[in-house]
Amino acid sequence: MVADIQEADMSRFNDPVQIELVEQTGERYDVILRALDADIYSNFDKDELFKGLLKFAPYYYFDVTWQQQDVVKESLPSYFTSNFKSLESAFNNELKKYSDYLIHDADYSRKIFERIALLISELPFISGTIELTMKKGFKFTLLFPRNKLLMISKSLSPEKSQNLNDEIIYSLFFNRQLIDFDEINLAENKEGFKKYLSV
Amino acid sequence: MKSIWQRIKKGSKNIYLCKKLRLLGRLTYPSIILPRISYKHLMDFPSLIDSQEIFVSRRSNKVCEDTFNKVGDVYTLREDAIEPLDVPNMSLNLMGGKFLEKYLKYIPNDKSGGDQNWDGVTKIYLCDFLDSYTVTNEYCPIYFDVREIVNQYFVYDKGKSPELTKEMQSFYKMIGKQYIGGKNNEEFIGNIMLAHVPTNLNYWHSEFRLQNYREQLIERKKQKWIERLAVDVIKQILCVNGYRVLPDILSPIPKEHYMKSNT
Predict the structure, then answer these.
(1) Which end of chain B has fewer CB atoms within 10 angstroms, the N or the C?
(2) Tens-digit pLDDT profile for residues A109-158
């Protein structure tokens, strides 16, 4: 079953999800999101490849190293989809109750949410939720084994262009005690978090 | 000083009026939480906190669903459950004494007398405060384990200020500490205290206090730096340490902590 990438719907993905980039003859590249029950397919010109990949966003965050003539795969953890769905459901509930906290329209806010949630969903949390805050942003609260709690805040600037990055503020708690907080780029630090929180 | 007869007269009037209003269902305020002259003016909180686990409560004016997040089997406070402006000198109620959860529904009216600090000597008659409170039925209790919130440190900045930089340098020099200036704003470390502040209508009233780096009280004022630090305190300390229920077994406050020793 093949569908166009533009019509991709997260709900159709089963675990695991893989991305494949395949160099075709000429200057075209196939991009396939491979799932158990469906492959999402598209192809792009070489010059347009990375611009084209951005069309995945906000449906999928990818961090693929690409080499010519190679097939590059990245597997997502088995819990990715359920994590994302639980956060998405919490976000929808928040929108119903607290949409007046938003400084941008709901669609734009959802894009920012998805961008961060797709990164966060790769972390092995037991349970997670999100709240819209009066400080005009989102706060994810994630519970991990061994009494670790991670809060990730993303504030939204009135300037839309400033929101499309992966800068977040995290607060990490152990036994309800704050052990660290900082502002970081989540995409760049995701693997470190994953490693620590998987222990 | 009132004469004995005046006090007896006032006491009788208080009993009669309150009894009549209670019978009519027009007075429900719990007189058991009023200050008594047999009570110490102020409890020694540091000694109490050192000696046992104690909890304090706060009323959220929202329903519990809008006060807490449920994350697995853990509850955390929503950030909007407490207003940043309320954080300095935030009102709390000491649990384990006479104050019970159901008394959270009584809200002392501002500047009504009921919310004024008790002076430690005046006998309180409930009939003097009948219009000093309102009753709400929509609220959610928030509990804090005092040991998890007091003596916690927080970092704050007051914005760029040459005056403060000079002050800090001078202070650090005095105490022999190395001064490391901030890149933009000067950062300070404050800490959290809990103080017993009995009011005319509630002996068990206490306050959450923020102290600056000189251990001076940070007052409740509408200033940006105070709001910033209050938001940080909510995020980093209060949200994770707010409980929805008290532990099954709550240690009672020993009488010697609040009763005068000669009574």
Answers:
(1) N
(2) 998 999 899 999 999 999 999 999 987 889 999 999 999 999 999 988 77
- For A85, the domain range is 80-198
Based on the fold, state whether residues A188 and A129 are members of the same structural domain.
yes
Q: Does B236 touch chain A (CB under 8 A)?
A: yes
CB contact under 8 Å between B72 and A131, yes or no, is no
* pLDDT (tens digit per residue) in A161-190: 677 788 899 999 999 889 898 999 998 898
A131 contacts B241? CB cut-off 8 A = no
Select from A16, A48, A75 the last residue of a domain: A75
Question: With an 8 Å Cβ cutoff, are A151 and B239 in contact?
Answer: yes
Residues of A in contact with B241 (CB under 8 A): 176
- Residue B149's identity, in one-letter code, is I
A128 to chain B, closest Cα gap in Å = 6
Beta carbons of B69 and A127 less than 8 Å apart: no
Together in a domain, A71 and A84: no
Structural domain count, chain A: 2
pTM of the model: 0.78
Query: Is residue B155 within 8 angstroms of chain A, CB to CB?
Result: no
